[in-house]
Amino acid sequence: MTHGCEEKTPKISFRFNRGQLCLPYAVFLALFVIFPLLVIVYYAFTAKDGTISFANFVWFFTDMSMIQVLLQSIAIGAITTVVCLLLGYPVAYVLSRIKSHRRGILLLLFVMPMCINFVLRAMAMKELLDMIGLLGKYNFLNTVIGMVYDFLPFMILPLYSVLIKMDKSLEEAAADLGAGRAKIFGSVIMPLSLSGILSGITMVFLPSMTCYVISDTYGNGKLRIVGKAIDKCFGQNDINSASVIALVLLVIMLLVTLFTGGFSKNDNTRGVEL
Amino acid sequence: MRKFWGFCIIVVALVFVYLPIIVLAVYSFTESKSLIWSGFSIEPYLSLFSSSELINMLVNTAVLALLAAAIATILGTIGAIGIFYNKKILGKFTSAASRIPVINAEIVTAISLAFVFSFVFLRGTYFSLLIGHVVICVPFVVLSVLPKLKQMDSSLYEAALDLGATPTQALFKVVLPEILPGVISGFLLAITLSLDDYMVSAYNKPDGFETISTFVYKALAKPRNAALAELRALSSIIFVVMVIGVLIINFRSGSKYKKSKIKENRR
Amino acid sequence: MEKNKQDKIIELIDLTRKFEDGLIAVDGVNLYVRKGEFVTFLGPSGCGKTTTLRMIAGFDKPTSGKILLNGQDISALPPNKRPINTVFQRYALFPHLNVYDNIAFGLKLKRVRTAFESKGCKPVYKMKKLSKSEIAEKVGKVLKMVDLEGFEKRSVSTLSGGQQQRVAIARALVNEPEILLLDEPLGALDLKMRKDMQLELKEMHRKLGITFIYVTHDQEEALTMSDTIVVMKDGVIQQIGTPTDIYNEPKNAFVADFIGESNIFSGTYLGDKKVRFIGQAFDCVDEFEKNEKVDVVVRPEDVEITDAESGLVKGKIINSIFKGIHYEMTMKIGKTEIVIQDTVEKEVGETVGIRIKPDNIHIMAKEFSSNKYDGYITKKNTVCFGDGEFECDVCQLYDGSHLDDEGYLITADGEKIDLTDLDVKVEVGLKDIEITDDQEQGGAIGNIVSIIYKGDHYQLIVRTDENEEDFVFDTEDTWNVNDRVGVIIPKNKIKLSLVTEQKK
Q1: A6 to chain C: nearest residue by CA?
Q2: Chain A residues near residue B154 by CB distance under 8 angstroms
């Protein structure tokens, strides 16, 4: 607080104050993040000739194939998120409770694959599925496997970073007070790791709804998700339709963010503290 | 018993993560479009390093990642210091706006940038590609640096001023060394993010320019005449480099851990 | 106290610091410090002592007022331009630098005016950096002074608390500041260490001869080390004086209570250097107006125990604790308790007498004899004051008046008056206020900000949030500081008077 006050007094001849340092970044964000999003909104509400129009929305919400794509995307996103959570939580928990220095190495083992380009990893998983004969038969299942394969680390990391900070004696205290395993998990560990769960959901849900690289790779090109729909419109130079779909995604992002705790959170969901 | 189950979970998860990569690595030593063993060969490796197209793509991706990460690190470090010390509206705006590229769908970020660059006829230039990569990297640099600023004893800056440093000197001589670990990890994170990006590259890259992501995606879409065997070789090389990295870190952290244990015991 | 102006190294004039949330941390402080003095700002946390220090250092800017250094206003000068150095509370050593580089930090930034010979004419002056050898020499000297020779290459994180403390002091002193500021520098050390460092700091001050301004909440530390103590509370200076002055002649009950242990009683000055408290007239040395209500301070060590018969007052010992050098005993005289320190123990239950020498009885004007407020009458014939609304008897404003059915006041002459919005003076006695946990029940709501034990009762101050109105009153009940309470004043205890015409 005192810093803030210190800088307010105008007569002080400090050459700059530290708060002003966010100016370049603020300008950058305004130009390349905020303004582009406004452009999306603008295009979504205009027709090809530039007049204000709701035709794009009418098209989006009446075209059965579009609705189907959206619902299919939400289904893939939701299933991927749930599977990642069910797989990632135990892993993150076990990792966070390892006491030796091996913990860092094991965590690294889960994070390291992120260094291999995700398309290359998708290729690896695709070829494995091909080898065991799943490819081409179960497009939806394969796509979910592919998404989980790609996004699992993004679920493990935020969960791990919350669980590692949790005071271990809380569990002992709960056990001491007579709580069983299930009770300890349900009434102590789970509620305390909620913020990690929510960050994990943010990191997995929306990307798995839109990452058409993966659905194309595993779905044999037959499974369309919203990301692909945007790509298609963009490819046909139909920027208004592309914008309307992007706007729907923005709204979904907003809803997910509100649900998971807003813009205020500043956790580094991709960073690792070893 | 509990330990045993924990062990099982970790092993199963690691198999899930690594099996595809290892299988791919094994089959990188045979010449075949699909995973059929047709005799040992190092031909894929030779052709990976002799194909100018592939080498070009790799160099492009690496240079782009280094440039984008460097810009993002400078911009993000300054930005994080600004956000941390600016408790007013500008700081709050910057902090909130900085979160958007993190949570937004990458494809939305990508096409919105493409729209904006097409206004100024810069779409599909190296500039638009670079800016796009900075956009997706810089918030993570900020997120790496901010916690270091929070951990820092707030009187260090004042102590520097007290000893005669100007605000600029205090920033460079005291604040920067303190947050350096965050800056470095932000830089490394930015490199991996840039290397991993597909969406922003796909919609903002110049024609004929390929990054690993766009190249492999194309190869997968048209497997018939693609250099899949070479890509397998490439994955295997990255994998091996990665494993060596893990081993080095393992060795170093192991000795560090022992040292800290010894220190603890002394007390 | 008026000294030569040259003597004052630093002077604070009407110094005020208001934070953005409205809190006034420092409220019109006037003070000067003489060259070479060891001055301590003493007070409880939140009293404004650290904020004052930060303004002298330059980390905080005063909202109004001036800071004069050698007669020149430096309030606009940034900290790096002031010839003042600080030893921080948690040392603030730079973790990335070793001991040597921490200490040399300031020297490396320093530019000195150096004379250069130029072809027989006048010498030319240029700003020059200190040379490596000059820096090494200065650092070596200061390291020797703080007994840390040979520690140059050590990382600061490997040092103990006491060693870090020494490095912090060395780092500040090496710049040869005119004033050294110390912000609770010993707070993080253990008791033994603290005692040693107190003496060392005092010795350093004696040797160096520079001005030390020290901030602490530890009264013992302040008494041990300082030439002058400045006692602060709520951003206001309560008393400035030498340790002896402050201890022996506290200006008010707060200072008496804060410095050392003390018995504080309510008393009445009887005239002829006699004061009556704990049910007995005592001889004293101070003079007050006859029958004036006063606070009487007696230090526990100044109470002499005698036989039950030969004392001025007798009472029963109800408690005794061995404190190492002396016994601390509590004696009950009627309803009043008095704390006594003596090397001879009296049995609990024993009846003894006490005597107090006249010059050990310190008398202070009572801070509050009653609460006075400005208020106004509402439509409902209640009165608003002190951020609250209370039932009252409005008829006392006019002798012989009464209220009619509609709530208008009818004076003795039969005149009908609408009292709504009438400004009045309100007075409430110290014994006429009660407080309750049930805040809604009170006419006003506030927090207890001060509790002072006065032998047989406590004097409490309840402060409201909005206008920070204070309700001062006596109670026998035990409360805690920061309790949130409702203030109750019985209808008949609120004394109203009209605002006199002259005042308007």
Answers
A1: C60
A2: 3
* Structure confidence at residue C2 (pLDDT): 42
Q: Which chains touch A (3 or more CB pairs under 8 A)?
A: B, C
Q: What is the largest CA-CA distance in chain B?
A: 73
CA distances from A28 to A24, A33, A58, B75, B98 (A): 6, 8, 34, 9, 10
Give me the pLDDT at residue A7, please: 37
Cα–chain-centroid distance for residue B194?
6
Instruction: Classify A64-260 by CATH class.
Output: mainly alpha
Q: Which overall architecture, per CATH, does domain B57-226 show?
A: Orthogonal Bundle (1.10)
Q: Rounded to whole angstroms, how far apart are CA atoms C37 and A247?
A: 70
**Between the CA atoms of C19, C20, C23 and C24, what dihedral angle is there, to the nearest 10 degrees?**
40
Which of helix, strand or coil describes residue C325?
Answer: coil
Question: For chain C, which residues lie within 8 Å of any Cβ of chain B, measuring from their own Cβ?
Answer: 57-59, 78-80, 84-86, 88-90, 92-96, 105-106, 109-110, 171-172, 175
Sequence letter at residue B91: G
Instruction: Give this complex's ipTM.
Output: 0.88
Chain-centre distance for alpha carbon C403: 48
Residue A134, judged by CB atoms within 10 A of its CB (0-12, 13-18, 19+), counts as middle
Instruction: Report chain C's terminal Cα–Cα distance, integer Å.
Output: 40
A-contacting residues in B 154-213 (Cβ below 8 Å)? 154, 157, 166-168, 171, 185-186, 189, 192-193, 195-196, 198, 203, 212-213
Mean pLDDT, rounded, of chain A: 84
Q: How far apart are CA C482 and CA C126, in angstroms?
A: 59
Taking residues C232-240, what's their average pLDDT? 92
**Residue whose structure tokens are 């409702």:** C486
Name every residue whose Cβ is closer than 8 Å to that of residue C21 and which is 6 or more positions away in sequence: A1
User: What are B52-57's contacts with CB under 8 Å, separation 24+?
Assistant: B53/B227, B54/B215, B54/B227, B54/B230, B54/B234, B56/B210, B57/B210, B57/B211, B57/B212, B57/B215
> Nearest 5 degrees, angle CA B133-CA B87-CA B148?
60
Weakly modelled stretches of chain B, pLDDT under 70? 1, 33-35, 225-226, 253-267
Nearest to B106 by CA among B139, B146, B144: B139
* Closest CA relative to residue C10, chosen from C51, C52, C47: C52
Task: Using alpha carbons, select from C265, B170, B256 the residue that is nearest to residue A18.
Answer: B170
Three-state SS for chain B is CHHHHHHHHHHHHHHHHHHHHHHHHHHCCECCCCCCCCCECCHHHHHHHHCHHHHHHHHHHHHHHHHHHHHHHHHHHHHHHHHHHCCCHHHHHHHHHHHHHHHCCHHHHHHHHHHHHHHCCCCCCHHHHHHHHHHHHHHHHHHHHHHHHHHCCCHHHHHHHHCCCCHHHHHHHHHHHHHHHHHHHHHHHHHHHHHHCCHHHHHHCCCCCCCHHHHHHHHHHCHHHCCHHHHHHHHHHHHHHHHHHHHHHHHHHHHHHHHHHHHHHHC
Can you tell me the distance from the alpha carbon of C224 to that of A267, in angstroms, rounded to the nearest whole number? 49
**In chain B, what are the domain boundaries?**
25-51+232-261, 57-226
Q: Give the neighbours of chain B: at least 3 Cβ pairs within 8 Å.
A: A, C
Token readout for C385 is 């004051």
pTM exceeds cut of 0.90: no
Structure token digits, residue B182: 């965050």
Domains, chain C? 5-83+177-248 (3.40.50.300), 261-365 (2.40.50.140), 370-503 (2.40.50.140)
